[in-house]
Specification:
two-stranded antiparallel ribbon
Length: 226
């Protein structure tokens, strides 16, 4: 009995090692794309931040409204980070007297965290300002009144507020590294490397097959010895 057990252990050892390798590969695969780095636009009905349903170029806030902008990495609108400043009109605009033919809009700017900043850039401190603009002005015009320079891309996507960030516009970010940093030609199918250090489905499947075959060989060896 003891001798048979030792022979079975010798066959099972490579199987156990291969299984451990498979688990290690599955456990160390890096995270998928985290999202996009961009300025999100917010409004504050009832004093609570809500993701805007229109862009700042078409939304027209009323007198006494609050709008906010937050720079962050977000996967989509449901994941977007809200401005961290309070969504209140009074603290921002009480010191700006009303004027005929104009409206006052509180503008809250959150430049985000260092973790979300592009390489080599530091986010400015958050701030707010009272924009006094024409009665028909859009949110984009209110923003321009208090936070120039603004930068837009050719598709009218808001890329920078008050000059931040200096470059980039809605670029994709993957895991802890930006997509632009890890962009490289993908290897040919079946090479066992899908880029970004992720083991391919073929590689994982191959290892799994080896584990299964090794286990089958172990049981066949035991039956022959039995």
């Amino acid at each position: 009995m003891l001798g048979g057990g030792m022979r079975g252990g010798a066959v099972a050892a490579p199987v156990t090692a291969l299984a451990a390798l498979l688990l290690a590969l599955l456990g160390t695969a890096p995270a998928q794309a985290a999202g996009y780095r961009y300025w999100s636009f917010w409004q504050a009905p009832g004093g609570q931040w809500a993701y805007a349903t229109q862009g700042p170029g078409t939304a027209r806030p009323g007198d006494g409204d609050v709008i906010g902008f937050r720079f962050a990495v977000s996967a989509d609108s449901s994941d977007a980070a809200k401005p961290r400043g309070a969504a209140g009109f009074g603290p921002v605009c009480d010191g700006t007297p009303a004027k005929d033919g104009a409206k006052r809009v509180a503008v809250v700017l959150d430049f985000g965290t260092p973790a979300d900043a592009p390489d080599g850039e530091t986010p400015p401190a958050a701030r707010s300002a009272c924009a006094q603009v024409g009665e028909d002005a859009t949110a984009g015009e209110a923003l321009a009144a208090v936070a120039k320079p603004l930068r837009y891309d050719s598709s009218a996507l808001l890329c920078a507020i008050a000059g931040y960030p200096r470059t980039g516009c809605g670029e994709q970010v993957s895991g802890p590294k930006k997509a632009a940093e890890s962009a490289s030609p993908k290897p040919a199918a079946g090479s066992g490397d899908e880029g970004d250090g992720v083991p391919s489905a073929g590689l994982i499947g191959g290892i799994a097959a080896v584990v299964v075959l090794g286990a089958a060989a172990f049981w066949q060896a035991r039956r022959r010895r039995g």
